[in-house]
Amino acid sequence: MAVPRSIQAVLEALERKELSAVELVRDTLERIEQTKDTLNAVVSLLLDTALEAARRVDEARANGAPLGPLAGIPVAVKDNICTGYGATTCGSRILADFRSLYDACAVERLKRAGAIVVAKTNLDEFGMGSSCEHSVFGATRNPWSLDRVAGGSSGGSAAAVAARLVPVALGSDTGGSIRQPASYCGVVGVKPSYGRVSRFGLVAYASSLDQIGVIALNVEDAARVLSVIAGHDPRDSTSVDRPVPRYGDQLACDLSGVRVGVCEDHFGEGLDEEVASGVRGAIDLLREHGATLVPIALPHMKYATACYYLIAASEASSNLARYDGVHYGHRAAGAGDIVELYAASRGEGLGPEVQRRVMLGTHALSSGYHDAYYLKALKVRTLVKRDFQQAFEQVDVIASPVAPTTAFRLGEKLGDPLSMYLTDVYTVSANLAGLCAASVPVGLDSRGLPIGMQLQAAPFAEARLLGVAHAYQRESDFHTLAPPESIST
Amino acid sequence: MSASFNEAQVRQVAHLARLNLSPERLVEFGAQLSKIVGYFDMLQELDTDDVEPTAHPLDLTDVMRNDVAQDTLAVERVLSNAPDHDGTYFRVPKVLQQEDA
């Protein structure tokens, strides 16, 4: 039989014993191997532990023992999320030999639900990038077109789901790192509200912005996995103690009661025409099925990218001070004293984009510049947050593009970092304001590349966000399109 | 505010960030950082005198827990990732310069 691809279909096949979890894991590992040279989505396999876990699921099923809601589902995990077995490299030379010692909270919860962690996925080093090209393992390629980027930073997770290597993957999103690669690869990406999912075991990039989330083939699958990983964890004091709804059971959403905010600034200069018409078409579909469109203003949106990069770089420069060649990670040889050891280890071990952001952040926090840059950005963050608070008094969700274009060419923006940063213009605000947001596929452009629509909702309004996204998928079939198998195998 | 970085300034920031950079990269970063920081300067258009800063998206105050001892990772496991150690200590090159007597 053909191996099913979505979580729902896999669970049904396992339940009917048309497939065993061990067979499924073997098939998954084989497909990853087949696409290694083309996609480069995966950086390491958890071969032994995955097969062992699959055996246990099959045994439990055979014995009629209770099974978790994701029993037997293979999952890939972005390689900045710790697993207690194997490596966690963050795509960095400085952690190339680092063995992580414990499971992240989200990984722990997935395993408890019966999911099987099969692989760690490629990323821009420490999550810093919008193309998945800044990795010590080389770039991940887009399954729809191998000369295009997969997007970033969770490009490996998005490409792995899009190529049907796994039904679901974890990513992390600091300024769009789940939503933008999901959009470029034609799959669903969900960035939960800040505090919804514990960051315990997520390697820190910018702690007031980072959030773990889900990349899947459809909204139902994403909702199901979010219910498993969400919730309070005492090991992350910013994880919020409030009940976790069963998102997968609450997807029924009557669009006739839904107010969709549309901000004309999201459709202005710099937006590709085909992306604009794809997203407008999707918004029209919501309206045709009963949603009310409400024009909204987000007056500080044009400042969000500058505000975001100042805050993210500042927090990064502080968080990444821990890579010092002393406690773990790469140590340069031959340093005469401790300061030389720090500087040489970091000079050799950190890649250029990470160094650039550490430099920017160090500058923004340094004496004489702190008030003009870092403090100013924190104040502008207040203004951005207020814009959304006011908007969400009038609307339930805000619909917009995810990115100004579809996937760009490999190498196209590497020489001009600012042009790369500006691709995050629609996604960074959600992180600044702590919103939940999702990316859903809404079509292909004339080159055959996926277009994504972003939906944003107020903090902790995930049920509403996913309900609207699911309602869209009920009325459209773009999420069922798969990249031609011939491209990646 | 001047947005352009000369080589000495880039070298100073690299020193503060504890990053050894090649001469070529210092030049490259100087040009790139000037352009990026120049873009950041748009924030100066906004009057934020009466705006409170937001350091964090949540309205959380201090989160307390009971002061109870818990199991943590074993020292040997922690040291297994260290580039160099001596017993239960991380080993590093000399920290203090020797003063002339």
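qc> Chain A has a mean pLDDT of 97.
qc> done
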